[in-house]
Amino acid sequence: MTITPAPLFHRLCPRQPDTIIRFDGREIEAISGESLITALLGAGLTTGRSEFDHKPRAGFCLMGACQDCTVWTRDGRRLRACTVEVVPGLDLCSLPKQEITLT
């Protein structure tokens, strides 16, 4: 028997996705104007892992006061997923861009 994990977020009033965003290379259907954390949780994703115990994290306060839902843009900007609206073309990562120095 295969158990499929349920999404971490359940919409009370379902709406049709109208755009695609990318998170860690994965395409996600989303609704323009909704919060990024809503789109990620609705897709069954978390925003990253705890820096202390490496367990998945998905936001704590959901109002921009903590940093538990931090995500990064491909150009290295840090965003809080709970305060950013979905716009077409978003391309985000759960980890910051790592600079590689060759010696």
From TrEMBL:
Alphabetical keyword list: Oxidoreductase
Which top-level group of life is the source organism from? Bacteria
Asked if the keyword Oxidoreductase belongs to this entry, the reply reads yes
- Which SUPFAM superfamilies does the protein's record reference? 2Fe-2S ferredoxin-like (SSF54292)
Looking up InterPro entries in the UniProt record yields:
2Fe-2S-bd_N, 2Fe-2S_ferredoxin-like_sf
One GO MF term: oxidoreductase activity
Task: Give the protein name, as stated in the record.
Answer: NAD(FAD)-dependent dehydrogenase
The species this protein belongs to is Limoniibacter endophyticus
